[in-house]
């Protein structure tokens, strides 16, 4: 397994190496992701700006260390610059022009992915998660919005991004903070006990379920992001296959979810 280089942000101005644009590629909890262009190679890249804090440093460091895996969005450069009087980390990544897996699920709402298509997607995600777990990193926010395609065509590769909830684990390091997105959270994360990186496998099982039918196995009946009833169903593993579309694939998926 390749050993990642230590993260050493460049102190020079990003404008020396990249032309910045106003083309917004995406929106996240930390703000816009905009397009920039490498002056030497003319490669279009994605620029994410984070206020320079210990949490942001951890996020960028874990993402950077994971880039030896081709199923993870690649970081091209990291700059430490002052913007509007604040020290910021400017993270330049490969441009994922194919959009989110979430969008493709929405587009296929009336005709969910068949098992072969779902298997290819799950294989890509599982490869990324396996790599992270082998270097003792838990992602903790595995969801379709954080899975991006390199292009919009059928040959576009699917890659994992957004390490904002990621954390290093190990023999002397465990997880206890309840970081999660409601639909995909593992039952142990909702409790008070410590948990480990296997929480990502539950999220993968939920994504698999959604791919095959178009809706999540756990949801709030009242429209809220999460409710007491939804939390209880997640803790108890109470999910169902309520429609005829599960007739041929529910046994395989049940085995996967039970194993998670």
From TrEMBL:
The record's EC number reads: 2.7.11.1
Annotated ATP binding sites: 48
Q: Which reaction does it catalyse?
A: L-seryl-[protein] + ATP = O-phospho-L-seryl-[protein] + ADP + H(+); L-threonyl-[protein] + ATP = O-phospho-L-threonyl-[protein] + ADP + H(+)
What Gene Ontology terms describe what this protein does at the molecular function level? ATP binding; protein serine/threonine kinase activity
User: One Pfam family, short name please?
Assistant: Pkinase
Q: Name the InterPro entries for this protein.
A: Kinase-like_dom_sf, Prot_kinase_dom, Protein_kinase_ATP_BS, Ser/Thr_kinase_AS
Which part of the chain is the Protein kinase domain? 19-260
Its keywords, alphabetically, are:
ATP-binding, Kinase, Nucleotide-binding, Phosphoprotein, Serine/threonine-protein kinase, Transferase
Which family does the similarity line name?
Belongs to the protein kinase superfamily. CAMK Ser/Thr protein kinase family.
What is the protein name for this chain?
non-specific serine/threonine protein kinase
Organism equals: Macrostomum lignano
Q: What lineage does the source organism belong to?
A: Eukaryota, Metazoa, Spiralia, Lophotrochozoa, Platyhelminthes
């Amino acid at each position: 397994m390749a050993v990642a280089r230590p993260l050493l942000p460049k102190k020079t101005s990003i404008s020396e190496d990249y032309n910045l644009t106003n083309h917004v590629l995406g929106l996240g909890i930390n703000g816009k992701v905009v397009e920039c262009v490498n002056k030497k190679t003319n490669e279009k890249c994605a620029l994410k700006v984070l206020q320079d804090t210990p949490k942001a440093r951890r996020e960028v460091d874990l993402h950077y260390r994971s880039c030896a895996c081709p199923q993870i969005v690649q970081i091209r450069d990291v700059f430490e610059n002052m913007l509007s009087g604040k020290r910021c980390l400017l993270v330049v990544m490969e441009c994922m022009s194919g959009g989110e897996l979430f969008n493709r699920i929405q587009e296929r709402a009336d005709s969910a992915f068949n098992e072969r298509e779902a298997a290819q997607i799950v294989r890509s995600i599982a490869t990324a998660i396996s790599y992270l777990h082998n270097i003792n990193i838990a992602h903790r926010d595995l969801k379709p919005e954080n899975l991006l395609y390199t292009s919009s065509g059928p040959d576009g590769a699917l890659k994992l991004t957004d390490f904002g909830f990621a954390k290093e684990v190990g023999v002397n390091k465990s997880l206890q903070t309840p970081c999660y997105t409601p639909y995909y959270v593992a039952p142990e994360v909702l409790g008070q006990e410590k948990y480990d990186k296997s929480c990502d496998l539950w999220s993968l099982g939920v994504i698999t379920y959604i791919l095959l039918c178009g809706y999540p196995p756990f949801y709030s009946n009242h429209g809220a992001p999460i409710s007491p009833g939804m939390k209880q169903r997640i803790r108890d593993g109470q999910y169902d296959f309520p429609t005829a579309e599960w007739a041929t694939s529910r046994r395989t998926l049940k085995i996967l979810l039970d194993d998670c």
